[in-house]
Write a structure and sequence with these properties.
10 helices, about 375 residues, about 25% helix, 7-stranded antiparallel β-sheet, alpha+beta, elongated
Length: about 375
């Protein structure tokens, strides 16, 4: 079940909406056409507002239609109604396009636009891209939903992507996202055999699962959220295997705590590793490199390089390729690190993100003498 919201926008000659009588005339024309699509439609309220007017209509089964007339020549029509899953839509996208076409002719519209109906319900179908464009997913079920001490953890099912992990209403990884993990670890370009590796985060288990196929000497995975691991162990087995169930094997261990505790322990012991994976938060979207998330990310970078071998690498995901300003801020922070580092970047289209994503491979600069 969901609430269907249909949005339509029209541009007409501003002179026709310049006064109250003109707005009433245009609205009367709109109402005549709308009554053919919404049974029992009646005007319930009308309000004069700054820059135009607002008309509210009601129809069959509680359908509401709001018509906003702007004196600058813009008219918006929003139709909203409740729909059970088994019911046919009152107005489908196809019939909305026919309605749009009829209104264009009937009220002499200059330009118009009808949008596919928004399906509003109590589980997510819509998630944002990295630059905050709205994406609609073919999600048909929520298989897990729990608030952990750290975040809201959901596993939702997509018809095309399979099960997908969603954290605080942001898509993280799906069963179709092997390309994400392989690009993060640079499979085929990096040799992990016999190497010691630290994963910071990685609660979905996908990175650990794939790294263990490369025959490393040992992998420490440092994840704070038990709820994430339990959910993925049950519902995302195709990408994590049984590593989250066993938690410890001959060449790996999952440590459930704040990753900084283990990093500081390694620093104190003077331990050095070959690879560190930053699989925590994405690069923040902001105008400057300040705030709690940036401070956390910079702390992680500075601390990680203290336990990295001179020829080791710090591998991490960045953000969407369209978020160029934030990526540039991150690279400016990399330039400030001491000892100096150098980096390369990779780019891959991630199915569940529906966009290209940037990944970083960071190492000590050759002239450090580190």
């Amino acid at each position: 079940m969901s609430v269907q919201t249909l949005l339509m926008d029209f541009s007409i000659d501003p002179a026709r909406l310049g006064d109250e009588s003109g707005q009433k005339a245009v609205f009367s024309q709109l109402e005549t056409v709308l009554k053919d699509y919404v049974p029992n439609l009646i005007l319930a309220a009308e309000v004069a507002v700054d820059g135009g007017s607002l008309k509210l209509l009601t129809g069959k089964k509680g359908t509401t239609v709001s018509v906003r007339l702007f004196d600058r020549g813009l008219v918006t029509v929003n139709i909203e109604y409740y729909k059970e899953d088994s019911e046919e839509p009152l107005i489908s996208f196809k019939s909305a396009r026919v309605l749009e076409s009829q209104l264009k002719k009937y009220i002499s519209v200059i330009k118009s636009q009808a949008y596919a109906p928004l399906k509003r319900c109590l589980f997510g179908r819509y998630y944002p891209t990295s630059d905050e464009r709205l994406l609609e997913y073919d999600i048909d079920n929520v298989v897990f939903d729990e608030q952990s001490p750290f975040q809201r953890v959901q596993i939702v099912h997509s018809k095309s992507l399979g099960n997908m992990l969603v954290l605080d209403d942001l898509q993280n990884i799906s069963e179709a996202d092997l390309i994400y993990t392989e690009t993060l670890m640079q499979r085929g370009k990096e040799n992990y055999e016999g190497k010691e590796i630290v994963i910071l985060g990685g609660g979905d288990g996908a990175l650990l699962y794939e790294l263990l196929k490369e025959k490393p000497k040992f992998v420490w995975m440092l994840e704070i959220d038990e709820v994430v691991m339990s959910a993925c162990n049950k519902h995302l087995r195709p990408i994590c295997g049984d590593v989250l169930e066993r938690r410890k094997g001959p060449n790996y261990e999952i440590i459930v705590e704040d990753c900084m505790l283990t990093i500081n322990k390694f620093i104190k012991e003077g331990k050095k590793v070959d690879y560190i994976f930053g699989d925590l938060t994405d690069i923040p979207i902001s105008e400057s490199a300040c705030g709690e998330l940036w401070e956390f990310m910079i702390t992680i970078l500075n601390s990680s390089f203290k336990i990295l071998k001179p020829d080791g690498k710090f591998m991490t995901h960045g953000n969407g390729a369209t978020s160029s300003e934030s990526l540039e801020l991150y690279e400016q922070e990399l330039a400030k690190l001491k000892p100096a580092v150098s980096f390369s970047k990779s780019r891959a289209f991630v199915p569940s993100f529906l966009e290209d994503w940037i990944f970083y491979q960071i190492s000590f600069s050759a002239n450090n003498g580190a």
